[in-house]
Write a structure and sequence with these properties.
There is one protein chain. The chain is an alpha+beta fold and 520 residues long. The chain has 14 helices and 18 strands. The strands form 4 sheets. The chain has a 5-stranded antiparallel β-sheet with strand order 2-1-5-4-3, with helices on both faces. Strands 7-6-10-9-8 form a 5-stranded antiparallel β-sheet. Helix 13 (387-403) runs antiparallel to helix 14 (478-488). The longest helix is centred in the middle third of the chain and has 52 residues, at 253-304. The radius of gyration is 44 Å and the shape is elongated.
């Protein structure tokens, strides 16, 4: 097999061999020879070290052998025809093939390059393992189909994929005015920077370049009255290499317009609330002076002229004085409510144990008169808030507990507390308190007349009363005040009750994390 008169004159020279061995791809030099008349076969003249690894044969075992003899399982392998054609025509060619080589145990995709030599008899064939690229290509193809389906299905969404050469490999869906055309098919194949408006080039060159370095970008931007949420990030192959960059555009123009309208409405509402609060304060303050005169003249009438009046006249004076006293209570309550109607800007640690002992002291005479029992747990938390407002909150709750009891029943009030993680709260805290992890639940339980469940929400309304003034005195502002104070502190208040069996109010407040002032 080694005696062929048509064998090429080239021989494995040491210099050639060293040069070939430094090439990272497998290299074989094939010579086309005639055998058996018109039949031709391919003879292997040279092989490098990478070819030895790929084919599981030494150079000595390959050189001087026919390809069909070395690889009998290959049959009419298309590669043989490609090599013969390249030698005859003198035109180089390439082919991607998948080959499973039993001797080396390698099963891989190869990019095979065929370069004919000038002697019209030989060609250099290179074998470059592209298995990893093939897998990435298949993966990206699947992703492209997914991206196309996603951008076609999800309204107001566009997708652009940029390949390693900074060209647009995929474009689909609704594309913003960032691009020179909103027709996706007109962008594919263009360099990304050539496909966008020039004035945006500097920023987007940075986004794409840093994404190829592995960074991700999330931001919003707008073009021609179209506002988008944008993601720009890397697409990696199974080895973790960045092979593409993906840009996803989500049109949020309508949501943004709604958000702007809502913010404007909130500003208007805030101004309206401020105006109402100022009006309530000024009106109630200005009403106090004429009310004092009404009460003063009522007292004078009672002292000077009541003896000369009949029973009806004295009853009118008494009713006028009672109404004046009632009006004074309402005005004072309204003044108090207007003062706490604004959320706090600065919180300070407040020891609820000390605060509740102070409230008990303030209500000492009422507690004694009613023969009441007020028990406060020895373990009370330190919360974050305003001490004056919190004192008002708990004084209102305890006062109600002492007031709303059945005739002849001694009030019994029990106050306990526990801490809860944010996740167990019965409400969603405001976003500006998102850092707060622990909350206090303070329970104020009584043995009073109870509240029907249909009235649970009504009782927190301003001037809401469930009972006649002749039965239980009050202005109907107390519970509205407690709810507003709790909300000012980023908390809330809930109620559970059963008619005739008492009521429990649960107050939720943020726990103070440290003794320093807490500003939000």
């Amino acid at each position: 097999m080694n005696n062929h008169s048509t064998r090429a004159d080239i021989t494995p020279h040491s210099l050639w061999q060293k040069a070939m061995d430094k090439v990272p791809n497998g290299l074989l030099v094939y010579e086309i020879v005639k055998q058996g008349g018109a039949a031709t076969r391919l003879l292997i003249q040279l092989a490098n070290q990478q070819a030895e690894r790929l084919f599981g044969l030494s150079k000595e075992e390959m050189t001087g052998r026919f390809a069909h003899d070395l690889f009998p399982d290959a049959g009419n392998f298309p590669l043989w025809s490609d090599i013969e054609r390249a030698i005859r025509t003198g035109q180089p060619t390439r082919r991607e093939i998948f080959s499973s080589i039993s001797r080396s145990g390698i099963a891989a995709w190869f990019d095979v390059g065929i370069e004919p030599l000038d002697d019209s008899r030989c060609a250099v064939v290179s074998f470059h393992d592209i298995t990893e690229w093939k897998q990435t290509q298949q993966s990206l193809l699947s992703d492209s189909i997914l991206f196309q389906a996603l951008s076609s299905t999800v309204p107001e969404m566009g997708v652009v994929a940029v390949d390693f050469f900074r060209k647009i490999a995929l474009a689909n869906g609704q594309l913003p005015g960032l691009f020179i055309s909103n027709q996706a098919e007109e962008l594919v194949g263009r360099r990304f920077l050539d496909a966008i408006e020039t004035k945006y080039g500097i920023d987007w060159q940075r986004y794409i370049s840093t994404a190829f370095d592995g960074e991700q970008h999330y931001f919003t931007d707008h073009w021609n009255n179209l506002r988008c949420e944008i993601y720009v990030g890397p697409v990696r192959n199974p080895s973790g290499q960045v092979v593409m960059v993906l840009a996803v555009f989500k049109n949020v123009s309508e949501q943004y317009a709604q958000q702007q309208a809502l913010q404007q409405a909130n500003v208007s509402l805030h101004r309206s609330n401020e105006s109402l609060e100022r009006f309530a304060y000024v009106a109630s303050h200005d009403l106090q002076e004429p009310l004092r005169k009404i009460r003063a003249f009522g007292d004078m009438l009672n002292v000077r002229y009541a003896p000369s009046l009949d029973e009806g006249g004295r009853d009118m004076i008494a009713r006028m004085q009672s109404a004046a006293i009632r009006m004074d209570e309402l005005i004072r309550s309204l003044l108090s409510f207007s003062r706490i109607n604004t959320p706090l800007l600065t919180f300070y640690p407040v020891n609820l144990g000390d605060l509740l002992r102070g409230v008990q002291g303030d209500l000492e005479l009422v507690i004694q008169e009613k023969g009441a029992l007020v028990e406060v747990s020895s373990s009370m938390p330190v919360v974050a808030g305003d001490e004056t407002q919190l004192r008002q909150l708990f004084q209102n709750l305890i006062t109600n507990a002492l007031k709303f009891v059945a005739p002849g029943v001694a009030p019994c009030v029990t106050i306990t507390a526990r801490t809860l993680p944010k996740e167990e709260l019965p409400y969603q805290p405001e976003p500006n308190l998102g850092h707060q992890l622990q909350y206090a639940e303070i329970s104020v339980a009584d043995n009073g007349i109870g509240i029907d469940k249909d009235n649970f929400q009504k009782i927190f309304g301003l001037f809401t009363r469930l009972h006649g003034r002749s039965t239980y005195a009050g202005t109907g502002i107390g519970l509205a005040t407690t709810k507003r104070v709790a909300e000012n502190h980023g908390g809330t208040i809930t109620v559970s009750s059963e008619v005739g069996k008492g009521t429990v109010f649960n107050v939720y407040l943020p726990v103070a994390p440290d003794p320093a002032p807490l500003t939000h």
